[in-house]
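Sequence and fold:
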Amino acid sequence: MGPRKGPDAQTHDLIMEPIALNGGNKRSVAYFYDSEVGNYSYGPGHPMKPHRIRMAHSLIMNYGLYKKMEIYRAKPATKQEMCQFHTDEYVDFLSRVTPDNIDAFGKEQSKFNVGDDCPVFDGLFEFCGISGGGSMEGAARLNRGKCDIALNWAGGLHHAKKSEASGFCYVNDIVLGIIELLRYHPRVLYIDIDVHHGDGVEEAFYTTDRVMTVSFHKYGEFFPGTGELRDVGVGKGKYYSVNFPLRDGIDDDSYKSVFEPTIKAVMEWYRPSAVVLQCGADSLSQDRLGCFNLSMRGHAACVDFVKSFGLPTLVLGGGGYTMRNVSRTWTYETGILVGQQVGPEIPYSDYYEYFGPDYTLDVKPSNMENLNTREYLEKIKTQVLSNLSRTKFAPSVQMQEVPRDRDDDEDEEDDNPDERRNQRMMDKTIQRDDDLSDSEDEGEGGRRDIRNHGEKKVSITAPLERGGVPSVESTPAVVEEPSAAGETMEL
């Protein structure tokens, strides 16, 4: 048969054209940060420290990256919003349990997997609300075309399940953000570069082709023990779960040799209209809980590559347990997202002593052995690409009416700034001088945990419609510009 003619042929040729890498164009970035996130503590000796998010924010501000993006403080996710994925009973438990009444919830502790790894701490539910609210509002702003990239370093808690906590994660903000994106986007791609398998997100979308999950992680006698190459999804979701199991010590070159070809193939086969990127920093070299050997630049190269496709992208945090390296890397990656090179000198800030003795913005690889041979990586990559070829090319979705947003903020730019940023809101965003948290492995100076979690009231101005996923209207944050002396002054 000769070449096809007519409109069908033209459509086919158009669909199969390679994706253009247009991420070099200037893209608007919405950055979500709540100044209270660093006040929460999982407890003495626990490796998960929300304070790392505050450290990253301090570097981001002192490098002047705030000038290149819009900064928001999202409304915390409500119980109703969390229940779009999690069970009512589980969310109700999270909202009620405290360190003072934990003994009254003995049965629930076991049922919901709350204990050593996932302790009950002061302000637990508020902490979950901050993480979930930032990811949901980031997704909502992407949906409404108000930004090209949404950034929430407090998000990325990928282990939380529908009705249980897992791996330091209680509410799966990623799933909530993806559900929001699915209201407008037919296909969403989830990419996970945490050292641990993104099991909670994979499980949530294991039976659908609306979301493709791609996870690069350590596999073999390592938490959570899932993410085998043969775990590819079931039913309509078969071959839409992609797992790339890795061994200890993988370095920048090896990681790039599998990450970029895999993601390029996924983009060409799946044709997502939106991307969620989980940037867990425990895949960095010298992480307290990790076993990979990525440098800061090797980790950030993944962010830059995903950005290059020019799709609406929700960028989230995740794991990372050496705080000085987590904050360095997320700051550097924020610079990549806004198109500004930062470093190598660390600017003076309240947390300057954490970055000694070199005081540079860099995480270097160690001399640990790379157990990922070229033959092993090629074998896994070949199978992954083979599985991708079995998927339906760019699966379609039935068109239906999109439910209205919970809070329609079309005219938010015209709102009176004095009403939106009243003195109470501004006071709540001012950082306390004494709210540094413990760090057993970094820094000195007798840091203390200051727990100051005031109850936050969120007014819901419109009802949740059936089948709808409400968005969360955000409140612009107070931007503090660093002075030459390293202090802050209010703009």
About this structure: The domain at 24-490 is CATH 3.40.800.20 (Arginase; Chain A). Confidence is low (pLDDT under 50) at residues 1-24, 408-475, 478-491. The two ends are 69 Å apart (CA to CA). The chain has one domain: 24-490.
